Amino acid sequence: MALSNLALFGGAFFTPVIVGKITHTIGWQWSFYLIAIFAGILFPLVFFFCPETTFPRPDSPTTRDHELPSTSDSEPYQSASSNHNSLDKENHCALPTYSPKVTFMQSLALFNGRKTSDSFVKLLLRPFPLLFHPAVLWAMLIQGTLIGWTVMIGVELAVIFLGPPLWFTEVKTGYMYTGPFIGALLGFAISGLLADWSAKFMVKRNKGIYEPEFRILLVIAQLVFGCVGLYGFGAAAANVKKYGWFWPDFFFALEVMGMVLGAVASALYIVDAHRESSYTMNESAPKVGRRLKLRSLGEIAVEAFTCLLVFKNLFSFGLTWSAYDWIKVGGQYFSEHISPIWIS
């Protein structure tokens, strides 16, 4: 999980370092030309060497609903024993049938069937009720807010450092993302070290029982690095004549560290709290005729991540849409006071 977030955020913060130099040397249009060129190069690689990995497996005998027929009071034990024996024979005989492995040419098909029996409308509307799910709402706020403020800091960098008193060029402004890139690397390292260690530590304290809430401990580090970075950037960026370029970039790096830690913590909690499946016994059935049922707990995991993406994008869009006007009207007072208060 930490590595996937590093690939996302690390790439996002390393790209401006290069794009600043590209814009200054050959023009901003080439930023988009190069995107088209690399996308064209990668498309055939993705098409030929990244096959569909979704594989709907048939129900195994252990996941089917089996009900032992009720027995008369006169022969409960004999009937139960015979029923268990017949059920064992059925399980051994009724092995699941799997589709043959597709060939390389078959894997290139543009459409290879639906992967679920749910209707399209149900799949489309399923994420919306999760907006009111406490765990999903918490994850949206933990992850989405700092990502939104990070995007807004990018707007502030262009406004503050391209103008007086530093008069940075596009190249120097792009180099300002070196700090956030280092912060993303450090956030990846810290989250990788703390995620499993903190969970194992809490399992020992909890007498060997694991709880998904143990993943939430990472938000303590997010609170420290994120808030220090955000408040520090606001104070330093409000007076770049005094603090120069280093301290805003340093605090920007701390804020990105907190953002990566929060993203990893929320994602791990959502995944662990809603695992793919677990088995439950139907206690309401007769004692001899209980049913073994598969209860899916992972059905909301995909929709939960959809909610996280929607909130993050909408929140970031709202901030970037108004960020320049806020700074233009309110001056750098907004960077020093209003922005940190919002995140706190």
Provide a descriptive summary of the structure in words.
The structure is a single chain. By secondary structure, this protein is an all-alpha fold. It is 67% helix and 3% strand. The protein has 13 helices and two strands, in the order αααααααααααββαα. The protein has helices at residues 2-26, 29-49, 76-93, 104-107, 120-125, 134-161, 170-175, 178-205, 218-237, 240-243, 246-273, 299-330, 333-343; strands at residues 277-281, 292-296. Strands 1-2 form a two-stranded antiparallel sheet. α1 runs antiparallel to α11 (246-273) and α6 (134-161) packs parallel to α9. The longest helix is centred in the last third of the chain and has 32 residues, at 299-330. The protein starts with a helix and ends with a helix. Residues 60-84, 87-93, 277-298 and 338-344 have low confidence and may be disordered.
Task: Summarize it.
This protein is mainly alpha-helical.
What is the tally of beta strands?
Answer: 2
Roughly what fraction of the amino acids lie in strands? under 5%
The secondary-structure class comes to: mainly alpha
Low-confidence stretches: 60-84, 87-93, 277-298, 338-344
The rough form would be described as globular
How far apart the termini lie comes to 26 Å
Question: Helices and strands in order, then pairings?
Answer:
Blueprint: H1 2-26, H2 29-49, H3 76-93, H4 104-107, H5 120-125, H6 134-161, H7 170-175, H8 178-205, H9 218-237, H10 240-243, H11 246-273, E1 277-281, E2 292-296, H12 299-330, H13 333-343
Antiparallel strand pairs: 1-2
Helix pairs in contact: 1-8, 1-11, 6-9, 6-11, 6-12, 8-11, 9-11, 9-13
